[in-house]
Amino acid sequence: MGTAMISVVTAARKKTSKAGQRMNGIVIFGAGQAGMTLYRLLQRGGRRVEAFADNNRLLWHTQKEGLPVLPMEEVLALEPEEIYVAVVNETAQKEIQMLLAEQGYEGRIILLSDLKKRYNIRLATARLLAEEIRRRRVPGDIAELGVYQGAFAEELNRLFPDRTLYLFDTFSGFDERDIQAADGKMAQPGRFSDTSVQAVMARMPYPEKTVIRQGYFPDSLGEMAAETYEGRFALVSLDTDLYQPTMAGLSYFYSRVSPGGYILLDDYNSPQFPGAGKAVQEFCEREGLSVVPLCDLHGTAVLAKYGGGQ
Ligand SMILES: C[S@@+](CC[C@H](N)C(=O)[O-])C[C@H]1O[C@@H](n2cnc3c(N)ncnc32)[C@H](O)[C@@H]1O
Asked: Which residues contact residue 202 at a Cβ distance below 8 angstroms, ignoring those fewer than 6 apart?
């Protein structure tokens, strides 16, 4: 940033302050998919978002969700009370934070990564569900379809040290057989391939309770797909992001969830990966089921299997 730009900002600030036009609202820095997810979350929580900021000139003075997308200096001139930095890359988040500080911004800066750590609603919900499962003595194993680097699988393993945890993933990212137009443009073959079975196993607190099923789901079910297979599940996390494996996961797991058990459905409300929510809606309509959506950054929903428990 050059000195010229700083002086423009200062002049504009004085003008708005003098006129008593302090914005006192929120600006989201990043008008991409992460910014839109955060916008919906804040709006549902009753927070007033005033504008988006973005470094991409092509977006300047366009509208997103009915709000203006502005360059950084125009946003600063409006003196927002909070700026949420909604870009996925953590280095880029820090750079934006530094730039804002250099420009003399004195309000609160909230980084997406900090927000995810502080308000991990999916994890908090999984902990509550684990308590319910224990209290009601719901029988069954635990499973996750869509493991990636194992961040959530690690928590599932920690929550249920005495139950087998089945982990299903290609461990080479999205498979091209699954990619459909309905999945949106973020669905690219090989996405999420920066992982390995070894790396995932290394982070499991109870590796002896972890069973890896590597490969394309549903093929990776192997003998578990047989009608005679008697395994049941108390909690399943479906997190493949895509229509086809989400539908395949629901078709396999729902009938095998014990009464009183749950399925956690990641990306049910995701602007990035619309196919996952579409699959859940279609499945629920067909089976006469309904989900409880959570207001979290993953767009998670919970499907409870009626009955059971003691
Ligand atoms: C968003 S990541 C999972 C993130 C993980 N649950 C977490 O919370 O850290 C989605 C994963 O789904 C996997 N996946 C998608 N389609 C699949 C399929 N048909 N079979 C197996 N794995 C699949 C991808 O390989 C990817 O690792």
From this structure: none
